[in-house]
Each structure stands twice: as structure tokens, then as C-alpha cells.
Amino acid sequence: MKLLHQPSDLANGDRKVCLAIGMFDGVHLGHQQVLRQAIEDSHRSESRSVAVTFDRHPATVIAPNRTPTLLQTHAQRLRAIESLGIDAALLIEFDEAFSRKPGEEFVRELASGFRAIHSICVGASFAFGHKREGNVERLRALGQALGFHVHGLQAVSLNGQAVSSTRIRDAVRDGHLNAAGQMLGRTFAIEGTVVKGERRGHELGFPTANLDTNGLVLPPNGVYAAHAQLGQAVHHAVLNIGLRPTLAKPETTLQVEAHLLDFNDELYGQVMEIELVERLRDEQRFNSTYELASQISRDIERARTLF
Q1: Which of 108-112, 159-163, 250-254, 289-293 has the lowest mean pLDDT?
Q2: DSSP for residue 31
Q3: What is the pLDDT of residue 227?
Q4: 188-306 maps to CATH 2.60.40.420
Q5: Could you tell me which of 274, 276, 295 has the C-alpha nearest to residue 284?
Q6: DSSP 8-state assignment for residue 119
Q7: Which helix (H) or strand (E) holds 76?
Q8: Nearest by Cα to 36 from 53, 16, 17, 20
Q9: Which helix (H) or strand (E) holds 36?
Q10: Can you tell me the distance from the alpha carbon of 115 to that of 16, in angstroms, rounded to the nearest whole number?
Q11: In terms of Cα–Cα distance, which of 244, 220, 248 is closest to 296?
């Protein structure tokens, strides 16, 4: 998949493009339907398929106090889009100036930049432009004027309810990871860069990789069996999410730390993706670090039986 920062980066010659437009946080079943429609259109029309998305959630600019925690990092989102087989992704910088752009201007700039659009695929509730002035009907009117087709696809339903990023976030927060995985079409995973911690795990005999997960939705505090991916390698792991209440000075901010089984290398600065396999227990406060270390040993042994 080619990453574009402006339409002209595609160097598409005379071929048309089929666009799928959205934030696509989670790239869930509904998003996949929109993206696959663009891919299918491109195959039928001998065009190129392009996902049009944004470098940050629009709410971070439009309504910062209502910005949702995200299901994926920027890199995870692009990988999930690429896995569907799309040709390219246009990554738009969503800044103050872009947020004020009228919807018609946005669409006309896409048509001019790509030179020729065959189709645009969006969800049925898609809104675009300053103050969300545009909708699917407005997009269809622009399509008639500019010569492209529009697909406004209805939401995918699961268990009688529409699949949405909001619904998946709620499922993750409530610990319903199987439900979240069904709506995502894959196992829920947390990604973060390994940052330096206080080496408390090392002191207990169980060194951990502390992940920076700022801005991401997380499941309930507790201990989980997990798979940790570093580059192309996957390691068995035990993940702890919580405030480490047994320590003399419990953390005031949430910690996400993974102990990789049978692994001793330094990981600082590396990006790690964690797939949660099963919840092992709640976070607990122990009377001593000795009791905590004993419980961690039991957690590891139980996790090994799951892999």
C-alpha cells in the first residue's frame, strides 16, 4: 500500500480512483465493508483503490474535551487498512484550517487532485465539511456534477445492533473482549512504544516492558495472558494493567506492562503490539512483594497452559 500525503503522490496516469473515506478507527466490520466496496469497484473499473483518512481524530481539533480514546494507534490503523488489499492511503492532516473547509471544496479538491474519480464509498451516516454540513445526499449531488458514483453503505449489524467504534470502545472498557473481537473481525490488540520505567518488575525477578498507551482505550485493570509482537517475532507474555497497589508508592497513573516469557533483551524504544488471550485475574493488593512475586509465578504458569 502506498502512503500518500497529497493526491498527486499517486502518480496514477489516466486511471481513475475509487475512494473510501473515513476516520476508520478500529477498521471494524463496518469500515471493512466500505473499504472492500472501493476495492471491488476498482477491480471492476480497472481503477486504483484509495482509502482517504486523517492523521488524528477530528475531535482533537473540533472538540478537544470530547476526543474519544482510540482503538488503534495510527500505525495499527494503516496496517489494518493495508491488510484488506487497498492500493493506497491518503493521509490528510486534520488541522484547524482543514476543519473549516467547506464540504464541497473538500470533494472538489479530491476530484482535481486525483484527476478522475470513479466512485466514493462511505458509511450511510457519513458527514463531511465544516460543521459536518455535508451528508451522503450532498455527496451524491456532487457525484452527479463531477461524474462519480457514490455508495452510502448501511452499518453492519451484530446481535441486532450496529457495529461502531463507540460500541467497540464500550465493550473493551467493560472487559467484553470477545464481543469487541467479533465486531473488529480480529483479536483486540494494544500497541505502544516501550518506555523506561522504575524497573520494579526487574527487582521482583520479572522484568517488564512498560508501554506508552496514551490516548488508547484499555480493558479493565487486571492480569492477562497475551501474545506480544515485536517486528515479525511473537512472544508469549503476561500483561498487567493497573496502578501496582502492592508497592510502597502505588502509581497515580495507569501502567501497562508486559513480562515476555523466556526473553531477556532490552526493548526500550521498540513498538510492541499485544493481543490479549485471556484475563487471568483482577488487580490485587498483596501484603508483601514476596506474596506478589509468588502470585506472578502462578500467573505465568497458568498463562503457559493457555498458549
Answers
A1: 250-254
A2: H
A3: 97
A4: no
A5: 295
A6: E
A7: helix 74-83
A8: 20
A9: helix 29-45
A10: 7
A11: 244
Q: What is the pLDDT of residues 3-54, one digit of tens each?
A: 999 998 998 777 899 999 999 999 999 999 999 999 999 999 999 999 999 9
Cα 97 from Cα 84, distance rounded (Å): 31
Whether 250 and 298 have beta carbons less than 8 Å apart is answered as: no
Does 188-306 match 2-162 at the fold level? Answer: no
302/202: higher pLDDT: 302
Average pLDDT over residues 55-80: 95
- The grid coordinates of residue 2 equal 502506498
Q: What gap in Å lies between CA 70 and CA 150, rounded to an integer?
A: 28
Q: What is the DSSP string of 236-277?
A: EEEEEEE--TTSSS--SS-EEEEEETT-----TT-EEEEEEE
Look up residue 41 and give its three cell numbers: 469497484
Query: What is the three-class DSSP state of 75?
Result: helix
The residue with cell 486511471 is 15
Query: What CATH topology corresponds to 2-162?
Result: Rossmann fold (3.40.50)
Residues 6+ apart with CB under 8 A from 293: 204, 205, 206
Please provide the average confidence, as pLDDT, over all residues in the chain. Answer: 92
DSSP 3-state assignment of 65? helix
Question: Is residue 248's pLDDT more than 60?
Answer: no
Q: For position 157, what pLDDT does the model report?
A: 94
Q: What's this model's pTM, rounded to 2 decimal places? A: 0.92
Q: What are all long-range contacts of 154-157, with beta carbons under 8 Å and residues at least 24 apart?
A: 154/123, 154/124, 155/30, 155/123, 155/124, 155/125, 156/28, 156/29, 156/30, 156/33
Q: Where are the domains of the chain?
A: 2-162, 188-306
Over 90: is that where the pLDDT of 287 sits?
A: no
